[in-house]
Amino acid sequence: MPAQNTVAHDLPDAAARAFMDQVIAKRGKRPGSLLGILEAVQEHDGHKHLSLGALRYVAERTHVPLARIYSVATFYSLFNLQPQGDNTICICRGTACHTRGSRKLLESLRLELGLNDAGHLGEADKLSVTTPDGKFTIRTVACFGQCALAPVAEVNHRICGHVNERTLEREVQALEREHR
Amino acid sequence: MPAIQDISTFHAVRETGLNKLVPPVPRVAIGMGTCGRGNGAEGLYHAFAEAIDRTGADVQLTGVGCFGACSEEPLVNIRLPGRALVVLRRAQANDAERILHDISMGQITPDLAYCRVDEWDHITAHVKYGPGYPELPSWNEVPFFKGQKKIVLRNCGFINPDDIEESIAVGGYEALYKVLIDGRPEIVIEQIKASKLRGRGGAGYLTGNKWEFLAKAKADQKYIICNADEGDPGAYMNRNEIESDPHSLLEGMIIGGYVMGATEGIIYVRAEYPLAVHRLKRAIEQATEYGMLGENILGRGFRFNIELVEGAGAFVCGEETALIASLEGQAGRPRPRPPFPAQKGLWGKPTNINNVETWYNIAPIVTKGPAWFTETGSAKSSGTKVFSLVGKVQNTGLVEMPLGTPLKNFIYDIGEGGVNGRTIKAVQTGGPSGGCIPQDMFDTPVDYESLGQLGSIMGSGGMVVMDEDNCMVDVARYFIEFTRSESCGKCVPCRVGLNQALRILNGFTEGTGPVDRLDVLDELSRMIRDCSLCGLGQTAPNPVLTTMRHFRHEFEDHVVAQRCRAGVCEELALSPCENSCPLHMNIPRFLQLYKEGRMEDAFEAVIMDNPLPSSTGRVCQHPCDNRCRRQTVDEAVNMREVHRLIADSILTSDRYEEMVGRIVARRFPPTGYKIAIAGAGPTGLTAAFYLAMLGHEVTVFDAKSEAGGMLRFALPDYRLPKSVLRREVELIERVGVQFVFNTRVGFDVPLNELDERFDAVFISIGTWKDSWVYLPGTELKGVHTALHVLESVAKKEEMPLGRRVAIIGGGNAAIDSARTALRRGSEVLILYRRERNDMPAIEEETEAAQQEGAKIEFLVAPHRIIGDAQGNVKAIEVVKTRLGEYDSSGRRKPVPTGEIRRFECDNVILAVGESFDLDFARASGLQMKESGTIEVDRFTLETSRSTFYAGGDVITGASNVSNAMGYGKKAARNIDERLMGVHRWTQLFPEFDYDQTPPEQPVESRRHTGHHVPVGARARSFDEVVLGLTAEEAHEEACRCLRCDIKSVNAG
User: Fold this and answer.
1) CA of A97: which chain B residue's CA is closest?
2) What is the predicted ipTM?
3) Is residue B155 part of a domain?
């Protein structure tokens, strides 16, 4: 079973609760605001994820059943139920990138970070795996819309075009040095 | 700025905007779309800002959107007052200073200039930028823009997207103003209907009809939605439209709101497009401030608001009912229609949903009228469409073309063909809902109906080009992997069906899928298509169905022969080099054995994989280089030269006898079967070697007096010394092959006789018949065919070529004849009807010929040969050609221009191709193909006649030595399996223990190539020109191998 389907159990602290109250107060009145609330809560979280505690808290405050919140949080690939690593490398799995070898890039990156057994290969287009030390998360995206730069990777929200196994390796090494 | 409430304020704002767009000072505008930024536009902008700050230059610096030529980014457009706008390309931060310097001198930096724009039709307004720079091409003279018509992208790359005033300057919100003043919504709907505008999201439903439904719906609240959830991988036009010109989208929606009676608009945009979100937010704020949104719009009493909602990464939300569910704060699962959104949409209210690009077409139709709009495009598909031309094509970017333009214009004219000379195989349109269209159907016009007929769709406009390195089975698998994981899971056909389809396709790419799964997959795909609830499931099988329809042979290769020619499916290959080698040599193995200093083992490994290793070590076209993974570090490993060295060092040494003994000892015990082979060329020799090794009694017949075929009688000595070939043939004889020379199969010995005397017959004769050009003057003395010349020289016969030789053709035979004639002391002129990079000859050979003094005239076709009174050649006349349309080979067709040129010469060599005389085969009942070759089963090489096999040139037409040998090897394997009834093939090959550790981190190193004898020393000699590597060089080459054959290693 992919790791993302299990939920971490942690209770949000006072500051996090205050933030959620604020977001819900601002958006919660309007129907259809759930996605926006969850996006804001996740963005505010230090590890960019939605803990079960946070989901419970949102359910309680918005009077939306937890089951529905869970269904939303697991449906959209943007939401993370697991804490994200300090660094995120996102490989685009769009068609243009695929024709220019992005699958190989992804495989070599997983090998490089020792994550080659995490997640099923069949899930390659919706992958999100984090190293045990929490330093790196590898994700994939359906398409960045940067097809003319294919293959594309996003390293900590910076788009890198025309990457190959070597340049990606250098990016990882640079990040490792920074965090040493 | 107070909201605009009257026309005079509106005009005043427009003047302010125009003053920014065409200011009285130089303007420098940087393309700051996401693709520009990805190529360094931000650094460039800062460099300009810093330099302007420092020098105090009176220059207006601004950011604009993208002009579409993404592969040329960062683009910068520069306008000096009163002069044309000039687009610069690939400008980098360190160029900023000199660009500014040139501007201060009233000049444009010449080496960066891409094109100029004198005036621009912004459709809703017209701007004259100015004259000047006649030396630069106008924008629509540049191949990438030729034929483009920018209606949707009318403002992209010109205006600052963050400034509503610049938008108003180029006619923004004027159509809205007109509609509000006219106050006749029904007329606008009539206009949209008459324009025949169709939804640009993919399905192509008529927009006017959709609008009419909502306009007629009665409700207290109606919604209109812009679908900007551009989820199709490979398509990004909506991102660029929003990033470059957000106000035109807002204007379209506000008009829509007014006309359909809605007051609330929602834009649902992908969260993966942060810049688009940012620019839209800014645009909505500005539009509200200027009175285009909110209460009492433009003082005309209409109220309308637009809200921005970010999607959260679910492809299915592009489906309209799923999108609505998502807006309602739920998981984005679709529901059945009817009721349609126009009846019951968001929150149960009537709702209209249109794609981003549809909205961009509204203002132009309102301003210019439907008759103007239908002038562009085809009868059923009017207007233009923006396509993202990406993948394996030279020029990538966003292309706006009239609907109905043939595919080949996109790929070859705008895209300028494949990357690095690779052959384009297909184009994928419509993303995961679309399909793959093969290269031979590139005449197809791009419109909704024509693409539909091929099983594909227009979709949102993605065009992903695929070349010979892309595997179509893998492409099908890729899309199913995508749709399977994007399936919302609501209906069974989609959720379960796609999962099963993926399992089957995984089996194909791993080589485990049984053949009958092909039919299962076909049936399953049709079931998913017919039974799924929403568009996602209904269209998800299209990539499979179209690839199975147009690329059936690739599926069969995977399933029947476990081969992936493109080399993508790694489980089916040892390594990329092995996969691209027609003989499937285990290249990493011989490199490693050599590296370990085990020369005898290396030789055994090489010769068992390839019985003519010294010859192929010299003349093989080395396809192994093309896919060598070392290229990602520096250059491909020179595998051919290493195996040449291994072969040479045994074949020409005293270890030869010992090695022959070792090979002969591997021979299987006699089987008693007798096999005849027709033709002792590379194909026949290869088949003979393996069949003899397998214990059969093999007799090879050949019309010539010696073995070797083209290697012996067509390849000149300076490329392949015959002593080398003789050693190889000797080894083949020593394993038991018998030769019968000077005997033509089908003439001297009839096929029926072979049938009686032998258990199996393999036909592998070569293309010994020269093609002929029918020209006036070919009857003259001094006109020869290339093969005739080469054979005569190879046989050391008298072959006078005179003082000046003209050679017609551009293949290897032409180059071989040229270099032979040069060695005979002639002056040589090669006449070729296309361009240099179209020449089929091996590149290095052409280069060597030119170094040795051959002249080549390109773009000329022979017209006539002129003789003197004695009937001898005196001169040749040629007609200049120019390159016209692309033909089905993906090359431009040469078209005669009528301009005649004359060259004096005393001999003419025709090198225009080779064919063969296969009448005997036809006469004895073998089925032939239309092309004149023998029909065989692709996988077993069996002909229509039982126990008869054929391979090599006779089934493919003229090819090259390694391809030919590949067929010989394949034939031997199949013949043996058929005769013996068991699989013995793999037992024939030796196994070696050798190091299986992957190499350390590679360090950049140069590729060693064979040493050419200096031109002066070789030009008149038939001695070998390219000498092999030294032992150290070969060792270094072997060390450069990245060992792709070692798999499943955890380096982490």
Assistant:
1) B391
2) 0.90
3) no
